[in-house]
Amino acid sequence: MAPMKVLVIGAGAREHAIVRSLVADTSVDAVIAAPGNPGIGHLALCEPLDEITDSATALAIAQRHDVDLVIVGPEVPLVAGMADVLRDGGFDVFGPSAAAARLEGSKAFAKEVMSAAEVPTGLAHLCTTPDEVADSMDALGTPYVIKDDGLAAGKGVVVTDDREAGLRHAAACLAKEGGQVVVEEFLDGPEVSLFVLSDGMTVLPLSPAQDFKRVGDDDAGPNTGGMGAYSPLDWAPAGLTADLVTRVAQPTVDEMRRRGTPFVGVLFIGLALTTRGPRVIEFNARFGDPETQVVLARLLTPLGTLLKAAATGRLDEYDTLRWSDEHAVTVVVAAHNYPGTPRTGDPLGGLDEVEGVPTAYVLHAGTALDADGTLVSSGGRVVSVVATGDDLAQARDRAYAAVALVELDGSHHRTDIALRASRGEVTVG
Where does the ATP-grasp domain lie (predicted)? Predict the structure, then answer.
């Protein structure tokens, strides 16, 4: 296979993880990132992209570098149709069309597709008025699960026993232009994230992971974009991934193709392993962050070749993927006041020292270089610290040893990522 040039759209730790894996693929000879970040800049050429939804500039970058593959990382440009513009420009793209990305862009649409594909999921009501919300909450009971229908960067969901808090969140969602709310039944049991690659026909699962959405230890505090993750899931039932491909992923991909909107990219299945079996909580139309950081840490199959096959309808050439036997843990170091309005502009230190911890490395998320060239925080989730180990306990120890070296004033992180799993305390059903 001729050497490939790959363009990665995005600026977070997920994209840094993708770029890191692409650089390790011997069939990839150049990686360009737009806009990238200072960490990605050590591995790839970063091109400016002031607005992440600026499809015209993304197309111009792809043309200027004559790339062989474009990977669109974040959900916002996908829902806005960036993959369509790039495909229309003649490029192979890993990432769904705007029509297919509605699986993430609209919770109501996702539920409609799940229903048509007979995918097991929780009961849900689509509401457009406060009265409908109140009636649905009463019908489905506590804990109340209230979701903004549109994109909300992982923060549009409130799970609460407080009826008034649920109604307030719903009112804020409904106040948006075209605002709709999905009220769902609460699903018990541990949550699992499964990424499934799709070329529109064939699906190929990656290794499951578990992420930690709440800001504080023991799942306290508000939802975030994700504070850490680990993989693999030793406690998951045998055959879980194969079962989810059969019952969830393949039927969903088949249904999208039947509708004339084939899904090409990664289908992120968020699910709960309830006492009644797996139930899908949500679909996303891209790699999840921070799960990508731990899944790609263990993937041995070359990523560039794999995503090129997905983008060009050739996933059926892969029977299985190759995985490291190691366990991986990632811990997010967040800025002061995240997930509220995070403080930015604080100097970031200690990252070079992380290299002294076996297997550990830092993926940049919300970082920037200031006018003096100093590395500073520029977002809520600042870095993801990743480490691998022979077992989960060793991976945790290394990850947290590395986190302890990161210097960022006012920063915070969870201290319990993968802790219960490492102690064998996660049970299903």
Answer: 111-312
